[in-house]
Amino acid sequence: MQTTILEPDDDLELMERIKKDRKKRIEKQTVLNSTKDREYLQDVIYKLSKVGQAIENNDLPSAGSVLGQTPDADWLKMANEALSKLSSSPEEMSEVDAFNSSLTSLYSSVTKNDIEASKSAFVDSASAFEKWTTLTGLVGQLKGL
């Protein structure tokens, strides 16, 4: 293991990065606590739970009724606003993109009545959402994960 001596400038730079990261976390927490974003994200968890139960019971019509008619349903629009607002890194945005992509696949497979594709798309959607909550540090702030 190598030990590196920090120059005073390096130390200041490191402290500035730490302060900036802490500020971002506090801002996320404030946004989550002071707006409807928490409700929108909780709604995602609730809907994914209901969809997962329906798929597990091979009941794609019920899964479809929970999801709504199209991938631009109001609940998803509101959730995406919250996801975007609370995402500050490229990695977090990448998980938002993965979530949306897999959710579009889920809509498609449920509509086509394809149970295997629905199961796969559901797992991908839930995994991407869960990874996003971990990356953003919100995993402990939301119920049902």
From TrEMBL:
<dbReference type="GO" id="GO:0010206">
    <property type="term" value="P:photosystem II repair"/>
</dbReference>
<dbReference type="InterPro" id="IPR049072">
    <property type="entry name" value="MPH2_C"/>
</dbReference>
<dbReference type="Pfam" id="PF20675">
    <property type="entry name" value="MPH2"/>
</dbReference>
<dbReference type="InterPro" id="IPR038862">
    <property type="entry name" value="MPH2"/>
</dbReference>
<feature type="domain" description="Maintenance of Photosystem II under High light 2 C-terminal">
    <location>
        <begin position="40"/>
        <end position="145"/>
    </location>
</feature>
<protein>
    <recommendedName>
        <fullName>Maintenance of Photosystem II under High light 2 C-terminal domain-containing protein</fullName>
    </recommendedName>
</protein>
